[in-house]
Design goal:
alpha/beta; Rossmann fold; 3 domains; 6-stranded parallel β-sheet; 5-stranded mixed barrel; globular; binds iron/sulfur cluster
């Protein structure tokens, strides 16, 4: 089986037409048209927005941080949580005034939330100030959709549920000069019962491995130091093709690229994480010793209702194998509290799994209904109970994380400098190979450089230390 491969250049006709419109704008106003983009949701959305920014720059637009100053406004939305959707509707309302004052501004919404037919229909009928709506599978047609909106003043809705091709060579305007996202596959086949992703991002489609290797090689040549491979379930990379690749093989090939850089990846589904993958992480020096392995619940009964296709015992076996194989392994995970029918005993199983594994970090979520998923029609539990359990779980994890982080006190860690700490402008910040935040007093190190930091103290969310010279280690 081969995925349908499209190229950005197939949009050349529309790219040229938009460039002409941008140039006319420049001649008339003396400045290029400006774009403003905002991303809700996950890293995949961040990565998609970087592609949209790249296409806009390629078509003659310049970026602005001021929404009210922009000629093109885009929000990339997320459908995973109800809270994120509510924020999007708040934003849509606020844009009415901008459109009233600047009728020529183009307002676009894209992302997973737009792929839901109930939402796109609502936008079509009720929110006439929105010009373009497109789903994640239509990113490759962005120049065409933008041209249609600019030239015809017609509203454009491109949310057809299709099997989804892969568009290569889209120009990317990366937010960072040393950290990069690289999508290796799109979509998901797993249908976890609480999750909307397979319905909005389509079935799994893996990119050609050689194209991924080329992209990473070019990033390394351009000075990128920390590259995160993205996919809803990277462990099933290439399962949708007839080639003889798998994710471990891809990691080994990326590890062979010359240069001083790190490779990370997310997300790993435990049902597809193999000993081969773990052995590969252990043996490849450029693959980070960090495994984000979402367990979601410690109760077998809930895991079955979630359609996760592994048991608590299998998960723990995998973790044990990984801990024994990878020295200094940092494990992080996702967990959902308050899944339909979750009992006190189920929840206690989750707490006991957290106690047993010693995660460095947990992304904790209170279950929220996603209409259209099987879990939405299961028996829901009381909101107060959900919140009580959530608090209990967070308290436990805070203690566990502080204990985990404290074991680094007195050690010297190699970190990639990222910039200034958000909390204290006299401090710089960076991340370890295990993705742990490290703060240290200002030194000469610049963002994008690797330095060594001797750790002096630890909190549950970060380590603190002093930069040390190589010869003082
Ligand atoms: S693996 Fe499950 S939770 Fe993750 S995107 Fe696919 S369906 Fe959603």
């Amino acid at each position: 089986m081969k995925n349908e491969l499209l190229h950005y250049t197939m949009q050349n006709e529309y790219i040229d037409k938009v460039r002409k419109i941008s140039y006319s704008f420049f001649l008339m106003h003396g400045v290029k048209p400006k774009y403003y983009t905002h991303t809700f949701g996950c890293q995949q959305n961040e990565s998609d927005t970087e592609k949209i920014n790249g296409m806009l720059s390629d078509m003659g637009y310049i970026q602005t941080d001021l929404r009210d100053d922009a000629d093109f406004i885009l929000y990339n939305t997320c459908a995973v949580r109800e809270h994120a959707e509510n924020r999007v509707f708040g934003t849509i309302g606020a844009l009415t005034q901008i459109k009233r004052e600047k009728p020529d501004v183009i307002i676009a919404f894209c992302g997973c939330m737009m792929q839901r037919s109930d939402i796109s229909e609502e936008l079509k009928k009720k929110y006439r100030h929105i010009d373009i709506v497109f789903g994640p599978q239509a990113i490759g047609r962005f120049p065409e959709n933008l041209y249609k909106a600019l030239s015809s003043k017609q509203r454009v809705f491109d949310v057809i549920n299709e099997n989804g091709a892969i568009t290569e060579d889209i120009p990317v305007k990366r937010a960072s000069r040393y950290k990069a996202w690289v999508s290796i596959m799109y979509g998901c086949n797993n249908f976890c019962s609480y999750c909307i992703v397979p319905y909005v991002r389509g079935r799994e489609r893996s990119r050609d491995p050689e194209m991924i290797i080329d992209e990473v090689s070019n990033l390394v040549a351009d000075g990128y130091k920390d590259i995160t491979l993205l996919g809803q379930n990277v462990n099933s990379f290439s399962n949708d093709t007839n080639n003889n690749w798998n994710f471990a093989k891809l990691l080994r090939r990326l590890n062979d690229i010359d240069g001083d850089f790190r490779i990370r990846f997310m997300t790993s589904h435990p049902k597809d994480a193999t000993p081969e993958l773990i052995d590969t992480i252990a043996s490849c020096s450029k693959i980070c010793n960090h495994l984000h392995l979402p367990f979601q619940s410690g109760s077998n009964r809930i895991l079955e209702l979630m359609n996760r296709k592994y048991t608590r015992e299998k998960y723990l076996q995998l973790v044990e194998y990984a801990k024994n194989s990878i020295p200094d392994l940092v494990l992080t995970s996702d967990v959902i509290v308050g899944f339909p029918t979750e009992t006190k005993e189920d929840f206690e199983q989750t707490l006991s799994l957290i106690n047993e594994v010693d995660f460095q970090g947990l992304y904790t979520f209170i279950y929220s209904i996603r209409q259209g998923t099987p879990a939405a029609s299961m028996e829901q539990i009381d909101e107060t109970i959900k919140h009580e359990r959530f608090e209990q779980l967070c308290s436990l994890q805070n203690i566990k994380a502080k204990t985990f982080n404290s074991k680094y006190i007195g050690k010297t860690l190699r970190i990639l400098v990222e910039g200034f700490s958000n909390n204290d402008k006299n401090m710089q910040t960076g991340r370890t190979d295990g993705n742990i935040i490290v703060n240290f007093p200002m030194c000469e190190a610049k963002p994008g450089e690797f330095i060594n930091v001797k750790i002096e103290s630890a909190l549950n969310w970060a380590l603190f230390g002093q930069a040390v010279k190589q010869d003082n280690i």
